[in-house]
Structures are given as structure tokens and as C-alpha cells.
Amino acid sequence: MTEVPQPGGRAGRVHPVEPIDPDVEVALPVPPDHRWRGQGAPVAMVALGGGLGSAARYGAGELWPTAPAAFPWTTLGVNVAGCAAIGVLMVLITEARTAHRLVRPFLGAGVLGGFTTFSTYAVDVQRLVAEEGRAAAGVGYLALTLVTAVAAVWAAQAVTRSAVRRSSSGGGAPRVAAGAAGGEGDA
């Protein structure tokens, strides 16, 4: 713990400084009555994006409904597509361009977080295993979703990095946001 002077001459304790999300501007220490100051815009962007992403996910469920005893292909497809989009987004806003600080909360946590539906995934696994007695299908779905979601992020990042490198080969290296350079497998 570190002692930090507080107004009125008191010393207050704060936790050691940990890495902070680069989209959120936070100055330490933050007085208790000011903790949410500056957080309104990112929170609003996550909420707005989450509403849009959830509406898109609902639309996918309406377009391709899953029958009660069927394998949940729509949920699997939504999660894989959303994870691929997250892979593309993260490369574009951290390695290819310098994005506005609200782009990642809006698109990443908001739209794509609302679009992907890992809560429905858990309910689908429970339904397959407990309600329908199809343990093999439930465990298969559990594993298939995890493997394909991670593979989608990785593949989308790799393809996007390659495309960014090709498009910038004539004009030098792509712009990298401070602290955003990562290896091929970073998500």
C-alpha cells in the first residue's frame, strides 16, 4: 500500500497501481465523491452498443430459430461470428489506426458484447444435458463453442494483421497505439 496525501493533510491508503484500460482515463487517487466522473461517456457507449448488439442477436434468433429439441446452431454461429468480429476490431483499433477512446467501449464491449451470447450458451448446455438428457450433445456443444470462438478470434486477428500489413507495405508500418503492440495470439 502507498500513502497518498489527502485534502486536509490526512494521508490515505491506495492500492498499488495496476494496468488500466487505455480507453478509460483515471487519475489516482480518486476521491470517493468523484469516482464516476469521466465515466459517463464510456458507460453510455457500452449501454448503447449493447442494446444494438442484443437487438442484432435477437434478430438472428428470429431469422434462424432453434427448435426446442434441436442443436443450438444459431447461438453457436452468433458467438463465432461475434468473436471473429472482435478479433478484427481489436487489430484495427489497436494496431492499424488510432481510434477515438469511445470506439472500443461502443463496438467491443457494447455491440459485440451484446451480440455474442455466452449466457444463452450456458442455458443451451443446461437444456441439452439436464432437460433433454443429451449429455454428449451438451458436452460437444460446450467444447465446440469454446474451440471455435477462440479459433475465430485468432484467425480473424491473423487475417486482419496480414491485410493491414499488405495495405501499408507501400507507406511503412501500420500505426500502433501506445502499449497496444501484441503477439499473434493476443486477444
Structural write-up:
The chain is built from five helices and two strands. Residues 176-187 have low confidence and may be disordered. With 187 residues, the chain is mostly helical. It has a two-stranded antiparallel sheet. The protein has helices spanning 40-63, 73-96, 103-115, 118-131, 135-168, and strands at residues 2-5, 11-14.
What composes the largest sheet? 2 strands, antiparallel
| Count of separate DSSP helical elements | 5
Work out the radius of gyration: 21 Å
The total strand number stands at 2
**Mean pLDDT across all residues, rounded?**
81
- Assembly level: single chain
% residues in beta strands: under 5%
Order of helices and strands, N to C? EEHHHHH
Strand order of the largest sheet: 1-2
Distance between the termini: 31 Å
Any idea what the shape is? globular
The helix content, as a percent range, equals 55-70%
Low-confidence stretches: 176-187
